[in-house]
Amino acid sequence: xxxxxxSDLDRTLIYxxxxxxxxxxxxxxxxxxxxxxxxxxxxSYMTETAAGLLTELxxxxxxxxxxxxxxxxxxxxxxxxxxxxxxxxxxxxxxxLLVDGxxxxxxxxxxxxxxxxxxxxxxxxxxxxxxxxxxxxxxxxRIAEDxxxxxxxxxxxxxxxxxxxxxxxxxxxxxxxxxxxxxxxxVPRPLTKSAAMREVARRTGATTTLAAGDSLLDADLLLxxxxxxxxxxxxxxxxxxxxxxxxxLTVAGVLAGEEIVRAFxxxxxxxxx
Length: 273
Hints:
The chain is α/β, with parallel strands linked by helices. Helix content is about 35%, strand content about 25%.
């Protein structure tokens, strides 16, 4: 039996310095492994224990580990996970399916067709973001993989009513809005991690799917999996989001990432027997 493990990355499996949440006394803090370097500086970490658990998990011939992220391909390829390289990876919130690091052209073509049929154009949404965002809190505006748009902001200065108005504007146009850290994402509703996960499950013959994620953009992934986990931080935790098949962890920060990998290992071992 093949078990597919699809995990969100940032603030689920890997953590920036700002997201580590090392609230314990310094002598009790976990040892950390840097798994991403950006512009010659360390950027993202796992605990060494989590790294060891992930190495064991990815070495299991009955497990297909699939990194699943809203990151672009370029951003994803900065990460160096321990263990066996992942054959499949889901990037751009499901818009890109990588096979041995190469984008699958058929998948990308199918995604483009569906977005054109069901959603307002990216150009319209991007223009609206630029027209309504306040320069007082807007730092950057980006388009990712010609699929979705996001803003880098000073989060504490963004008015909640602006976010609410943006979501209300986007909804009838087939788009969703998500706030993650310092980024505000505008993503076409059909662009989902779950659809890409189902495609990988079909290709690999996986009979069981496990997933983890912390943001509203991960909700569909968690609901589509047989079992899911969310950490004790992030959009889903803040909203009190739960589902019967999803375990809501109480631990937050990088230790939540460790607990998620441990849970994956336990569940994969049970499913594989």
